[in-house]
Write a structure and sequence with these properties.
The chain is α+β, with helices and mostly antiparallel strands. The protein is about 40% helix and about 15% strand. Helix 14 (about 325-340) packs across helix 16. It is elongated.
Length: about 400
């Protein structure tokens, strides 16, 4: 074998004696054209959606998610395929991306993400790699279709127009704000580090002395009886109640607030004219003359609605309460700072009043992955530290 290789190498090095230079040149040119054509054909075949979803990890996981988004179906009828977003359009970057993809081939062959469970376990890591690539090139793949100069910013809603105008001035990377626009966000994207779980762990040392204020750290069911057999309300996170009776497994608490005099008056808000939710009463409790104590009424000049001050005594399980609100605000502030600072300019908490924050906050929720309790805690933090309270 060794001798054969030596002879082959010697033959290849020997100058041609019977083939003209023109023939060699033409033959080399044709061979080059065939090689280059074959290479590019193979390259383009790997740049199709059909090729991408031939791998079951993509077909069964991210592809169904894409089909539920505006990138798949929209009024203009323009559809973005996998390579439109995930393969650079210019040649040199495309080749570099293909070389990186060799790791993905390895992962597929050896089943690194071969099951749904394995894929979900690696999803955050995979997403972070792609977000980093988009950030590094300024979301070039997005801007192949979406140009700041071509956007009709005046047709956007006021809040969106403000944010997009600032982004255009800085030529900001689209991925800074639009994570999750074509695929689901990873479950671990909530970088609060399990905020609610941490607060619940702290609540295990809470005492329930009569007369003590208590602050909820999660949604808590309240009951009309000490045995907790009949539900009377659901307490919102970060709501203050006062302990008035201490049972074995439950504590009786008083909830004070205001409700709008329309419908059944089930939603209790923290104060007059402020849409800061404290609890949602059951229909039976809301209509009861004995469970709910009523006081003065006032008319809200802005809305023309009549509000009524109320109190209700209900039983709560001895769990998920803290005797101080400070840890709640500390964790919520960190969650807001960490998760909501990626999109353009983070608003100062006191920039909006308590009734404006819910609408602004809802607009942010498409770009983070808060669970319901975390979302309620952060919103309550924003409302309680808004201009409504800072200015007074």
């Amino acid at each position: 074998m060794k001798e054969f290789i030596k002879k082959l190498w010697a033959t290849m090095r020997r100058p041609a004696t019977k083939i003209s230079l023109g023939t060699l040149t033409l033959g080399g040119f044709i061979a080059g054209v065939l090689f280059w054509g074959g290479f590019n054909t193979a390259l383009e075949l790997t740049n199709t959606e059909q090729f991408c979803i031939s791998c079951h990890s993509m077909r069964d996981n991210v592809y169904p998610e894409l089909q539920k988004t505006v990138h798949w179906s929209n009024t203009s009828g323009v559809r973005a395929t996998c390579p439109d977003c995930h393969v650079p359009h210019n040649w040199t970057d495309k080749i570099a991306r293909k070389m990186q993809a060799s790791k993905e081939v390895f992962a597929q062959i050896f089943g690194v993400i071969g099951t749904r469970e394995k894929f979900l376990d690696k999803r955050l890591e995979l997403a972070q790699h792609e977000w980093a690539r988009f950030s590094a090139n300024g979301s070039l793949e997005c801007k192949n279709c979406h140009q700041y100069d071509s956007m009709q910013l005046h047709n956007l809603r006021p809040a969106a127009r403000l944010q997009m105008t600032q982004a255009a001035e800085k030529d900001q990377s689209c991925i800074d704000c639009h994570k999750g626009i074509a695929h689901q966000l990873p479950a671990e994207m909530d970088s609060t580090g399990g905020m609610v779980g941490k607060l619940i762990s702290m609540s295990h040392s809470t005492s329930y002395d009569v007369g003590q204020p208590l602050y909820s750290v999660d949604f808590i069911e309240l009951y009309t009886d000490e045995n907790m057999a009949t539900q009377g309300a659901v307490l919102e996170p970060a709501t203050m109640v006062t302990a008035i009776d201490d049972g074995e497994d439950a504590v009786k608490v008083t909830l004070t607030g205001w409700r709008k005099m329309k419908g059944f008056g089930r939603v209790i808000n923290e104060d007059f004219g402020l849409n800061i939710a404290s609890a949602a009463l059951s229909k039976e409790v809301a209509q009861s003359d004995t469970d709910v104590r009523t006081f003065e009424t006032k008319e809200d000049e802005l809305t023309g609605l009549t509000w009524q001050r109320v109190e209700v005594d209900l039983w709560a399980p001895k769990e998920d309460f803290l005797d101080s609100v400070d840890p709640i605000w500390t964790e919520a502030q960190q969650a807001y700072t960490t998760n909501c600072s990626l999109c353009h300019t983070q608003p100062d908490v006191a920039h909006f009043d308590a009734n404006t924050w819910p609408g602004m906050f809802d607009g942010m929720m498409g770009f983070v992955n808060f669970d319901q309790a975390t979302q309620a805690l952060v919103l309550k933090y924003l409302q309680k530290h808004s201009s409504t309270f800072v200015d007074h």
